[in-house]
Amino acid sequence: MKTPKAIFYIPLILLLCSPAFAGQANIIDVKVTNNQGSYRFDVTIEHDDTGWDHYADGWEVLTPAGDVLGKRVLAHPHVNEQPFTRSLSGVRIPQDVSAVTIRAHDSIHGYNREMFEVDLSNHQASD
Length: 127
Known about the structure:
CATH topology: Immunoglobulin-like
Oligomer: single chain
Order of helices and strands: HEEEEEEEE
Strand content: 35-45%
Largest sheet: 5 strands, antiparallel
Number of helices: 1
Radius of gyration: 19 Å
Number of strands: 8
Distance between the termini: 79 Å
């Protein structure tokens, strides 16, 4: 008796449906507010959250040298809210830093290597 060909596809289908194939968390937009040197970042992330087993769980603001200036931890999945925006206030940026990068993190893949660069020269201090 021959084994049906479909049986060979079952492991592949199961693998493709696993949380690891939901992809990495991607930053699609960043809005910056500078309030007398204290920065607020509104970061919009898109990720195929599947629930607690795989979700976008944070993002960081980095100097060009890779120093972490601020970190936002996301405490729960956003399965039905995609894309979503979360904020981080009170980020202090050294005066000699004119640009920062923001990188997203998810619970399976870790940090996405693709980062979002923000030129701070366009964000003058407001009152």
